[in-house]
Amino acid sequence: MCDLGIEGRCQNPVECEKRRLIFKAQNEKMLELFGHTEFELFKRAFKEKGFDSLKKDPKRTHSADRAYERAISEAEIRSVFKNGDIVEYYQGNGIKKMLLWGFHYLGRKKYRPIHVVLKKEMTESMWEIATVYDPRSQPWLWNKEIYSERICFCKKRFL
Predict the structure, then answer these.
(1) Reported pTM
(2) How many other CB atoms sit within 10 Å of the CB of residue 126?
(3) What range does the domain containing 127 cover?
(4) Alpha helices of the chain — where are they, by DSSP H?
(5) Which one-letter DSSP state was computed for residue 56?
(6) In the chain, how many domains are there?
(7) How many CA atoms lie within 13 A of 40 on its CB side?
(8) What is the pLDDT of residues 136-148, one digit of tens each?
């Protein structure tokens, strides 16, 4: 089994590559069947209602705390919702999750990559923000150019 070793380096790249190829095929199918449609519906709702289109976490703990700790603003999240894309889609165990990816313009050819994980229960109509992060904080996990493809599949799961 693949395992992250010292400094987050993969200890079994062959196994990781096998898992990546399996995940990529499954994810492409899920995106085609459900993900792109779900994302377009979400974007339409967000364009109409903004952050009011999201289910509110009554405690606003995890996602709000993570955004604050990681210095990610509402403007950056809004930028992902408006201009970003869906890169991963999952449904099972009564929930749906979408990993959204985008860049937020900082100025003069400077952009910050942002990932936003949305989730909702199958019976719900509104998505909620599960977490937000800068994928550069896990450089071994994502392709280095644009951070839109997971390349490491070690034990630790992020979606």
Answers:
(1) 0.85
(2) 15
(3) 6-137
(4) 13-30, 36-49, 62-69, 74-83
(5) P
(6) 1
(7) 7
(8) 888 878 888 888 9
